[in-house]
Design goal:
heterotrimer; A mainly alpha; B mainly alpha; C alpha+beta; A: mainly alpha; MetI-like fold; globular; B: mainly alpha; two-stranded antiparallel ribbon; 2 strands; 1% strand
């Protein structure tokens, strides 16, 4: 008697799982298929499910509309800010994990608080400052501003990681007269590589997705891909195919990275609150 | 053991990171505070003058500002409970044994929405929700529902934002809660399963206590992200129609970027930040108590 | 009028000067020689006039050695991008000025008066002939307080696009002449079976103020401001116009408040809507069979008249030299602006989808057969209102207020009167702060 009931429950569970997957994935399916439609097909009512796909939208956005250049800008900015965050953040994480000092708790809170500051708070003053310093429309301005969220992520995740490394290792090294820097550099950092990798991927994703700073600080030469995507929203003509082609190009790298880091994405989003 | 290290070493390790965050996080903030005390409009820089707290007085008495705050709070109060309910359901299903391959695939697909570029979510929403060309209305037509004007009607546009917020963040809530469920010691859970057949009782008395930290984390982060919410409504509705989806960050962007009133926008941003920090401190004190 | 005379006198003086001095000597190639290799930065929109200019660019670049780097931005971002660039001393060399931005750009000193270049015989083309521009357009798009800055480049007038086939099927052999006819006869007859008589783009951005709100003020005798610069929105005429717009909504598709140009033109091009009032620039879209299902049915007429006359919507962009550019860039910028808006290029510009503001370009009556909008356009540019939307520096603040409460009115969230009252109060607060009421600033719009 229990068996059919259980089987039915299993079926229900399976169906629910399929529904969840469809719910998550369908928008991406629609994005990709729309990007393969000509404008005439994209504006068919009701929408077409079967059509002759074309790569023309990709060709056009990549080479005529400078989306290619904006993707390169996005890569430059995301990679540099991530590298900088790792260089600055790992020693700090090490210190938070290993050293005792006054005000540590407050420093901790301050790092977390950055996760809560809305970019809209910083964007206008930074625009004004960047014009004074001649940093307007440069990669550097974005790289620096993105540290406001990449650095806390690196610090958070790596602190956790350093804590999990047995202290016996550095104590032994200390006895042999190694400096703290050497211990960090040669013993702990290599062991903390998984954390560094995860936080790098997360930093990359968050930098890649950022819109508001990019939109205000980098109008042209350093324009990133999300800022580029919104320039197609001209009231005169909405080229759905091109918008979706650009969106697809933007989203694919983050999805790949997200899948690679899928186990740790939640940890990154919660700043290590959930392991 | 406590490592006895010299002050100089600590400074050397922490200094660069702290200096960088001071430079990019705190310095602009102070500059914003300074500007918020001025009548400062990018298109009227000649008329810039110190006005004390009058921008703040203007914000505090500005109906649009509080309406946008109210809208932001409404969004939070509607969409977060739904996200928690659905997320809990998904987490419980994924936590049950069996169908392993299926569940791994589901877990992977859950990762996708929350990593998606927020601006792209808004663009995608625009394409899918279009009254005439949109696939969502086509699907509604299959079950006999007339096309809904999602973007053009104030209530529907607000609902559309809620739906996409749920799409993007329910997976996140589900995965956070799933992580919480995995902290329940298996032997306790198994013992409880033997005692009762009611999944509800197991949830209520066995699993819930272990879920509390995850739930609080969800509340904290969803609060912060809702206050920050800009990209998705900006690319989907630009705050419209009327002001129906003008959430607080969208409003501030409009004042600063389209009215060019940076003094006023800074005052709005500082007030929003004060509210955020107040809430964050409250939550963090509560939640991260056990961290050290 | 005074302005017009001023400008014409200037142009006349400049052209005689140039004619006398070196009529035979001036060529673009010669004038551009010192500036070969100069790069110009300018913002363009993704609209037909710009696409036409982009097609013409290689020729200019080949003749002069000057490179024009254009960045395409959506209209919605164009003001912000330029304000931030000029405020930051950025790299834009040419300003793209919507008529409502001219006061702002001029008062900030971001653009150079054209006089500077017209008086420079090395740079001024003897064939420049400023008088050839429609005076209304030259004045409204490029001039502020009697000084000309920009030459009209991408020019619009509001026109009535109508679907002849739909009108004929409903028993109309001509378009409505008055708004009252739209309300009383065309509206009821054409709104049926999921089709609508009329669509009015009303989205909450400049479209709401320019295309929707102002369009129903002026023909009804209303206006934003009275002679003392106080709100005129509560006057019986303004109220009548806004009420008329509200009543007309029953003949428009639902959700009209979310319609921008794209949605409106599309609804017309798909045959869902019988009439729209849109900018001349959309002509090429609605008569192109690739983008329009009703290409063969499209006809154009001037906008319907109201109790106060025609007063059609007026809009468009001029190009002006940016004062932040260095000397070579300024000279090169002027050469480009002068060239792209020249009478000599106007015909080609028209062919390729642009709408020139040169009177001479429309002289040939045969053109009206290919470009059906020409007669209505020429007529509209005779009697438009330059301050259709006030053009002073405060417009960016005021348009935001109009956009917010204009859409709220249409959505029924506030009554016409409450909305008008709120707009009026907030508008006056902006003007008071700017110093119009204490005599600090002249009452110019």
């Amino acid at each position: 008697m229990a068996a059919p009931l259980q089987r039915r429950a299993l079926w229900a569970e399976g169906l629910l799982l399929v529904a969840i997957c469809l719910f998550c994935i369908f928008p991406f399916y629609w994005m990709v298929t729309t990007s393969l439609k000509t404008q005439v097909v994209a504006l068919q009512s009701p929408p077409a499910w079967v059509f002759t796909p074309t790569l023309a939208n990709y060709w056009e956005v990549l080479f005529e509309d400078k989306v290619g250049a904006s993707l390169i800008n996005s890569i430059i900015v995301a990679v540099c800010t991530t590298a900088l965050a790792v260089i600055l953040g790992t020693p700090a994480a090490y210190a938070l994990a290993r050293f005792e000092f006054r005000g540590k708790q407050d420093l901790w809170f301050w790092f977390i608080t950055n996760r809560f500051v809305s970019p809209v708070v910083l964007a206008f003053p930074v625009f004004l400052i960047s014009r004074e310093l001649g940093l307007r429309d440069t990669h550097l301005a974005l790289i620096l501003m993105y540290l406001t969220f990449t650095l806390p992520i690196v610090i958070w995740i790596c602190t956790d990681q350093f804590r999990s490394i047995p202290r016996e290792l550095d104590e032994a090294a200390l006895l042999e007269g190694a400096s703290q820097w050497r211990i960090f550099r040669s013993i702990c950092l290599p062991l903390a590589m998984p954390g560094v990798a995860v936080s790098s991927i997360l930093s990359f994703i968050f930098s890649w997705n950022e819109l508001l700073f990019a939109y205000i600080l980098a109008p042209k030469a350093a324009k990133t891909a999300p800022a580029m995507a919104i320039t197609f929203m001209e009231g005169y003509d909405v080229p759905y195919g091109k918008i979706m082609a650009t969106s697809t190009l933007i989203v694919i790298p983050v999805l790949i990275f997200a899948l690679i880091a899928s186990k740790h994405l939640v940890r990154g989003l919660t700043m290590g609150a959930v392991k | 053991m406590t490592a006895h290290v010299r002050r100089k070493t600590i400074v050397a390790f922490l200094g660069p990171a702290v200096a960088a965050l001071l430079l990019v996080g705190i310095a602009p903030l102070l500059y914003a505070v300074w500007k918020s005390l001025h009548n400062f409009n990018l298109t009227k820089q000649a008329q810039t003058k110190f006005v004390g707290l009058s921008n703040y007085a203007e914000v505090l008495t500005d109906l649009s500002f509080w309406q946008a705050m109210g809208r932001t709070a409404t969004l939070f109060l509607i969409s977060v409970p739904i996200q928690i309910a659905l997320g809990l359901l998904i987490a419980i299903v994924l936590h049950r044994p069996g169908l392993t391959l299926f569940k791994t695939l589901t877990r992977l697909s859950l990762v996708l929405p929350m990593a998606t570029t927020y601006a792209v979510v808004g663009l995608l929403a625009q394409v899918m929700l279009n009254q005439k060309y949109g696939v969502v209305n086509q699907m509604l037509g299959w079950i006999g529902i007339d096309p809904i004007n999602f973007i053009g009607d104030p209530t529907n546009a607000f609902i559309a934002v809620i739906i996409w917020d749920i799409w993007q963040w329910t997976p996140f809530v589900a995965l956070v809660l799933l992580a919480g469920l995995s902290t329940v010691p298996p032997e306790i859970e198994e013992a409880a399963q033997l005692e009762t057949k009611s999944q509800w009782l197991v949830l209520r008395y066995v699993q819930l206590p272990f879920l509390i930290p995850s739930l609080v984390a969800v509340l904290i982060l969803r609060t912060a992200d809702t206050l920050k919410l800009f990209d998705m409504p900006f690319t989907m509705t630009r705050g419209g129609p009327g002001s129906a989806t003008e959430f607080i960050a969208v409003l501030i962007e409009r004042v600063g970027n389209r009215q060019f009133d940076i003094g006023l926008a800074s005052a709005q941003a500082i007030i929003m930040l004060a509210i955020t920090i107040f809430l964050a401190r409250l939550y963090i004190r509560f939640f991260y108590r056990e961290v050290n | 009028m005074k302005l017009k005379m001023h400008v014409s006198a200037l142009a006349l003086c400049a052209s005689t000067l140039a004619l006398g001095a070196q009529a035979n000597a001036w060529t673009l190639e010669e004038a551009a020689k010192p500036y070969a290799g100069t790069e110009l930065e300018v913002l363009f929109l993704d609209r037909p006039g710009y696409n036409a200019a982009i097609q013409m660019l290689p020729e200019f670049e080949a003749a002069t050695g000057i490179k024009v780097n254009y960045t395409v931005v959506p209209y919605e971002n164009a003001l912000g991008e330029q304000v931030r660039d000029f405020a930051a001393g950025g790299d834009l060399d040419i300003a793209l000025i919507d008529l409502v931005w001219i006061g702002n750009f001029a008062e900030n000193g971001w653009v150079v008066p054209s006089e500077t270049f017209i008086n420079n015989a090395e740079l001024a083309d003897p064939a420049l002939n400023m008088d050839d521009f429609f005076p209304l357009v030259l004045n409204a798009f490029g001039s502020w307080n009697g000084v000309n800055y920009g030459l009209p480049f991408d020019n619009y007038s509001g026109l009535l696009f109508y679907n002849r086939c739909m009108l004929e099927a409903a028993g109309f052999d001509k378009p409505p002449a008055t708004w009252q006819e739209v309300m009383d006869t065309y509206g009821p007859a054409l709104t049926k079976d999921g089709k609508y008589a009329y669509a009015l783009q009303s989205k909450r951005n400049e479209t709401q103020s320019a295309d929707s709100f102002a369009r129903f003020l002026w023909p009804f005798g209303g206006s934003f401001l009275n002679a003392e610069f106080k709100s005129n929105l509560l006057s019986p005429e303004s109220q009548a116009g806004l009420q008329f717009r509200q009543d007309l909504m029953k003949f428009m598709p639902e959700g009209i408040v979310a319609y921008d140009h794209a949605e409106t033109v599309n609804a017309f091009a798909q045959g869902d809507v019988a009439m729209i009032t849109e900018w001349s620039a959309f002509y090429s879209t609605v008569v192109n069979p690739e983008t329009s299902a009703v290409a063969d049915c499209v006809e154009i007429a001037p906008e319907p008249t109201g109790p106060a006359g025609r007063k059609p919507a007026l809009g468009g962009f001029s190009l002006a030299v940016a004062s932040q550019a260095d000397e070579a860039e300024q000279a090169a910028g002027w050469l480009f602006i002068q060239w792209v808006t020249s009478a000599a290029n106007a015909g080609r510009y028209l062919e390729m989808g642009g709408v020139p503001a040169r009177q001479s370009a429309y002289a040939d009556p045969a053109l009206a057969e290919t470009f059906k909008f020409i007669p209505a356009l020429v007529e509209s540019w005779q009697e438009g209102v330059p301050e259709f939307r006030p053009r002073f520096a405060e417009w960016p603040s005021i348009t935001e207020i109009v956009q917010e409460y204009g859409t709220k009115m249409m959505l029924g969230e506030v009554s016409i009167e409450e909305g008008a009252k709120t707009i009026g109060e907030q508008m006056e607060a902006v003007l008071a702060e700017a110093g119009y009421y204490d005599g600090a600033k002249p009452l110019a719009q």
